[in-house]
Amino acid sequence: MKHIRFIIGLLFFNMLLACTDSSYLNSVPSESKALIAINPAKMSGVDNIVVLKSLLHLKKLDKTGIDLSHRIFLFESPDGNLGACVKIGDASDFSKTLETLNKQGICSEVSSFRDYNFAVLKDSWLVGYSDKSLLIMGPVTVAGQSQLRQQMVKYLSQDEDEGILSSRIYEKLDSLDAPMGMVAQADVLPEQLVAPLTIGIPKGTDASRVYICANIEKRGDCLFFDGMPFSFNRKVNESLQNALSVYRPIKGVYSNIMQSEDAVGIFMNVDGEAYLPILQNNKGFQVLLSGINSAIDMNNILKSVDGEMALIGTTEGKGQGISLVAQLAHTNWLADVDYWKQSCPTGGKIVDWQRNAFHFTDGKTDFYFGVTSKKQFYSGNTPQKALSVVNNQVDATTQDLNDLFTGQRFVMKVNLQHIGAEKGNMVGDFVNPVFGQVSQLVYRIK
After folding, report:
1. pLDDT at residue 421, as a whole number
2. Domains in the chain, start-ordered, CATH in brackets?
3. pTM recorded for the entire structure
4. What is the mean pLDDT of the chain?
């Protein structure tokens, strides 16, 4: 009887070990800058199929040699290469899968290199695998494939102490209970997104100290990231969390003002007196406002904000630049406009545009700004853009917009067609290949 109990216990232990085996993740570099986990078992059937088919270029998911009961991990390596790690269930079956893809012109023939098998997927992604782990890395040129192959051999040979399992970024990601989750350094994202994601860090702090931890969900052609920034550095993290306390629940007053030609929209509800010192420590925002601030006291305007505020960034066409719209506590700064007109830097001027509205230009920059009768500040690089942020407001938002903003304290919307398409970028290279057709990203802090 004791022997039977022992055998049953041993079998149960082995079954448990098999279900929780994560040794395939040793192939993910421990110093990865970004990590995304996709759990097929927790995803809806439609999303499951879209993600896996897009990532692996497969029409059918069964009998591929891939173990779909384990998570798929996407990462950015320390040297900036992008990668995916998947558990191999049967290496022989996976080799047959690649043979089929080769016949379809999707990948090269499989070749052996230092105990591992390799192929090139879609002419730019290198596939390497062992009997337990599959790595897909790139994008890479033909000239760079040899060096990347050497790097992948190193990753595939790593043990538990060398791989991602012993890292803080994995521990943080593993704490998320969601079908898809992400932990990423802020600086791996497109440059235009770094400034809003690092609001609140101490002055002079590098963006690589800030991480974004978020649950990911795809709805239609929109990818939602619900989470918040944090840092493994105690001082930086305290500063970030203190800044987050300034944000108040958003009602969605400006939920409809972002247009298809806009790249980024940032929405919040703040008291300008409390928020201004935080913005003044943000290098990205100071650079953004530097040209305007030389003639217009934007700090004084921002201090008057009390309520909803939206910042819209446009990267193309005549309207290229920023538009700001906000509810104000007062308009006392209007009394200073005459002084601003008189003290404009050489080559610049401020002239009346319409009632309580003005136009600043220095030959390079145009900025139209004003105040409505309802104490709303509005602005833009063209008259049309400035007026649009007021005219496009709606009294009753749609259900979709209500769902987008309700209960949130910070929302950032990104139109992918205007941002993040450069090669070697976590957004530009991974979003559509992995998640299928995506036109917009939404990052929210609740």
Report:
1. 52
2. 19-173 (no CATH), 248-408 (3.40.1000)
3. 0.86
4. 86
